[in-house]
Specification:
About 20% of the residues lie in helices and about 30% in strands. The longest helix is centred in the C-terminal third of the chain and has 14 residues, at about 210-225. The protein has about 230 residues and is of the alpha/beta class. It has helices spanning about 15-25, 60-65, 70-80, 90-95, 210-225; strands spanning about 1-5, 35-40, 50-55, 85-90, 100, 115-120, 130-145, 160-165, 170-175, 180-185, 190-195, 200. A hairpin with a 2-residue loop joins strand 11 (about 190-195) and strand 12 (about 200). A 9-stranded mixed beta sheet has the order 2-1-3-4-12-11-10-7-8. It binds glutamine. This is glutaminase.
């Protein structure tokens, strides 16, 4: 059994839960039971193998993360050196995971950090500039500099996926060779990265019919938390 939490405070959390629920009954992941936890309290984190921080609105998310020491507990859980959980932030979740947020940080965003990237909110403009686009997947992942370790396997089978960008943040810079670039649009806009146990996408795979990103997330949990599988 692996236990996967979805932060259910605000935003597109139902869609992530639906994806994980469907995924747990597919052939690929039938070797394990995926227990899905709707995370609303910091005390729930300690039982998790993985966590999704969904897209939504990072200012609103931050208001709730400031309550009950949620922010501190999440930070401690994410940076646990012994056996950290695997975290995937989509869109607003990416902002929360970024070490450096520049530009419109007007909402006093909580930045848990851990991902050594620089991002900016609403890079492509306001709501009416939201768009859909083909995304190029990189195999193997691109590196900012010389890799310091072997790249993680990236099993999205095809070269492209469909991206839904809703007031999406932009990844302006990758600040460490440990950050792998998994995908981009228009050749140079980075839209998906991974640093060890932290994954972030500026788009919303949970709003498409594609299960590959969720499947990849589950695979990463297996690899990081249960390498014996
Ligand atoms: N622009 C939003 C923010 O700054 C994120 C949008 C999203 O998650 N779809 O929080």
């Amino acid at each position: 059994t692996i236990t996967v939490g979805v932060l259910c405070i605000q935003g597109a959390f139902i869609e992530h839960i639906h994806k994980l629920t469907t995924l747990s009954s597919t052939d690929k992941h039938r070797d394990l039971t995926i227990t899905i936890v709707e995370v609303r309290e910091p005390g729930q984190l300690s039982d998790l193998d993985g966590l999704i921080i969904p897209g939504g609105e990072s200012t609103t998310l931050s208001v709730f993360l400031r309550k009950n020491e949620f922010e501190q507990t999440l930070k401690a859980w994410i940076s646990d050196k012994q056996r950290p959980g695997v975290v995937w932030g989509t869109c607003a979740g990416l902002i929360i995971l970024a070490d450096d947020v520049v530009g419109q940080k007007l909402g006093g965003q909580v930045t848990i950090g851990g991902l050594n990237i620089q991002c900016t909110r609403n890079m492509y403009g306001r709501q009416n500039k939201s768009f859909e686009s083909a995304i190029k997947l990189h195999h193997p992942p691109l590196h900012a500099a010389q890799p310091t370790s072997a790249p993680p396997p990236f099993p999205l089978a095809d070269d492209e996926c469909h991206g839904i960008f809703i007031r999406a943040p932009g990844i302006l810079k990758v600040n460490s060779p440990d950050v792998k670039v998994l995908a981009s649009v228009n050749d140079d806009n980075i839209v998906a990265v991974q640093q060890d146990h932290l994954i972030a996408t500026s788009f919303h795979p949970e709003l498409t019919s594609d299960f590959r990103w969720h499947s990849y997330f589950v695979d990463q949990i297996k690899q990081h938390r249960y390498p014996q599988y």
